[in-house]
Design a protein that fits this description.
With 405 residues, the protein is an alpha/beta fold. Helix content is 42%, strand content 17%. The chain has 16 helices and 16 strands. Helix 1 crosses helix 3. It is globular and about 65 Å long. It starts with 7 loop residues before the first strand and ends with a helix.
Length: 405
């Protein structure tokens, strides 16, 4: 039987390719208006409206790199079928653009093909979230070529989880078990080699785990509560003896730190502080760009604002956390683009608690108003401009007048 040649990772970052690609990306996503506002101290005054942008918002380096590589793949393979495992990032407008370039999606409700359809030398783009070990192995066995856009911060978490696995330490991952990134991260734990994982979503679930560590409990109930969020063969009676905390990179830093603190406290009580190094490990793996956007919004929210608009994909974890931060302080509207601003009286926005869009009336204040705006790390500047233009238009103000001044 012939031995399959190993799959190839394609290097697209050639100067001639990237120069052309970056010009194309800039054309699609750049915003002169946003750049003007940024240069003016992140705010503009237009009539009775004072619009303030957070100091950090929009595309991060990892997102820019992923988009650049997807565009580069199409340039290098102009006539070849290209495939992508899932959304390149969590922004519907960007993903629509990727699909418009003829790149076929291998997952999602509107997928164009299945992994089973692929064969030798087919080119597959791995999204910024990465992919699960088993999926990559399946593609490697088929002889596919890869354009790997996995974010470096995500790969740093993988490195920690793999080390935990080698040391027979169970990874407690603070994240969303259904999220692509967390699925990819948890797959780095190798049960066959003694590694296991458990995903905790919030502090309530963390406390449940802590109580089990300290007091034991009903194993069947534990496994039912965390169904779909632990590794094959995971046994809380055995695999919570030595744990290491990791996280989905886009979670709230403060919450991840609290998850870590509570688990450490439980392990210290259970095993003694003198033995903590044997039973507990932690590394800070929150994405720097995520934290910068959270810090910038925190600072913006200390200013006098009448309302906040958060722009981004509804399935974007880092954007959702920005919306959560806003909702704790003042009226906040989470929208994916300017089309959701129906009129000065009606806005369609995403409700995080109900997990669906709702219409709100009388959302735009009359008279003088100060409106804060931020956007997730997967939101391009052109969408932010569209929202600002729509805000101005609802007050009868032309953005062109501002650009001409």
């Amino acid at each position: 039987m012939a031995i399959e040649a190993p799959s190839q990772k394609i290097n697209l970052r050639r100067p001639d390719v990237m120069e052309a690609v970056q010009a194309q990306v800039e054309k699609h996503y750049r915003s002169e208006l946003v750049e003007r506002i940024r240069a003016s101290g992140h705010q503009i005054q237009a009539g009775d409206l004072n619009i303030r942008l957070a100091k950090e918002f929009g595309f991060c380096y990892g997102v820019e790199r992923a988009i650049d590589l997807a565009y580069a793949a199409r340039k290098v393979f102009p006539d070849q079928a290209l495939y992508i495992l899932g959304e390149i990032i969590h922004n519907p407008d960007v993903n629509d653009q990727i699909r418009a370039m003829g790149i076929k999606f291998l997952s999602g409700k509107d997928k164009d093909a299945d992994v089973a359809d692929l064969g030798r030398d087919d080119v597959v783009i791995i999204p910024a979230f990465g992919t699960e070990v088993a999926t990559r192995k399946q593609l490697e066995d088929k002889g596919c070529k890869f354009v790997d856009t996995t974010c470096g911060d995500v790969m740093s978490v993988w490195k920690r989880v793999r080390q935990y696995s080698r040391d027979k330490v169970t990874s407690i991952i603070h994240g969303k078990s259904w999220h692509e990134e967390t699925k990819a991260t948890s797959s780095q734990a190798n049960p066959g080699n003694g590694g296991h994982y458990l995903v905790v979503y919030n502090l309530e679930e963390t406390d449940y785990v802590c109580n089990f560590i300290l007091n034991g409990g009903d194993k069947a109930a534990f496994l039912q509560k965390f169904k779909g969020a632990y590794s094959q063969g995971f046994d809380p009676d055995i695999h919570l003896n030595a744990i290491g905390v990791a996280n989905q990179t886009t979670m709230l830093r403060g919450e991840t730190e609290e998850v870590q603190r509570r688990l450490r406290t439980a392990m210290s009580k259970r095993h003694g502080e003198a033995n903590i190094a044997t039973h507990f490990r932690f590394f800070d793996t929150i994405c720097g760009a995520t934290q910068e956007r959270q810090d910038a919004l925190d600072k913006l929210l200390r200013e006098p604002l009448d309302m906040l608009i958060v722009i981004g994909g509804y399935n974007s974890s880092n954007t959702s956390h920005l919306a959560e931060m806003g909702e704790e302080k003042l009226p906040t509207f989470f929208i994916k683009n300017a089309s959701k601003m129906i009129s000065a009286d009606v806005i369609t926005h995403y409700d995080l608690r109900l997990k669906k869009e709702l219409d709100s009336n009388n959302w735009l204040p009359r008279g003088k108003a100060t409106i804060g705006i931020t956007a997730g790390a997967s939101c391009p500047n052109n969408l932010i401009e569209d929202v600002i233009r729509r805000l101005l238009a609802l007050r009868g103000i032309s953005a062109e007048t501002l650009l001409a001044s």
